[in-house]
Amino acid sequence: MHSYIWCRQPFAPWAKRSLSTAWLVVISLVLLLATSNVFAHAVAQGDKGYIQEITGVNILPFMYLGAKHMMTGYDHILFLFGVIFFLYRLSHIGLYVSLFALGHSTTMILGVYFNVGINSYLIDAIIGLSVVYKSLDNLGAFQRWLGFQPNTKAATLIFGLFHGFGLATKILEYEISPDGLVPNLLAFNVGVEIGQLLALAIILIGMSYWRRTAGFVRHAYTANVVMMSAGFVLVGMQLTGYFVS
């Protein structure tokens, strides 16, 4: 189902030449993330205050907050980008995105409802690792290292569960009102899925044009190296925050 273009020639000459470009992009990415909010799952202060103050059923506001979270959650978008990177058929894309959504929705709703949270630094570090994992998977690293291909569907579902726990942890920190909790959580989740579809549409439009260019195969290696490096940066920032705090 995936087109692993480096499986037989993992270090083709064009791949080696692209490393210098990749590391220039990585350095820029590190500087960008270093000046941004450490929490990929952080909620804006205005939204935080709103969540803490409102009570009762508020369907549309929570749908908006869910969509906003997904559209601004760069960890989600990076992982989603990696998942669909080598998927060409809409049926395959729909399957993998649905598995991610199932995992994300399950732990987000159940985590908040049953008051089960994980340290926000640690869960976000795991989410960063999900980006690293998917990048290595796209590069065919596991086939070379392990001699077989891990189940990509299972990995997408499992990491979706962790992404959902990340959001549940932040919502619990903001002490959402129990009045109207279930409808609001469902509305929030619907908003997340709407945001995911919007983000996916943007990614697919960009990918469709990129794949038509002659340089796609050459730059695909660089893109996954950059994405993997971004995942490592996220992991490092979260672990640093955990030990410092």
What does the overall shape look like? globular
For the sheet with most strands, the description reads: none
Annotation field: number of helices: 10
Cα-to-Cα separation, first versus last residue: 43 Å
Structural category: mainly alpha
Q: What's the SSE pattern?
A: HHHHHHHHHH
Radius of gyration: 19 Å
The helical percent reads over 70%
Would you report the number of β strands?
Answer: 0
**Mean pLDDT, nearest integer?**
83
Q: Which percent band covers the strand fraction? A: under 5%
Q: Which stretches of 5+ consecutive residues score pLDDT under 50? A: 3-16, 34-40
Descriptive overview:
This protein has ten helices and no strands. The protein has 245 residues and is an all-alpha fold. It is globular, with a radius of gyration of 19 Å. The N terminus is likely disordered.
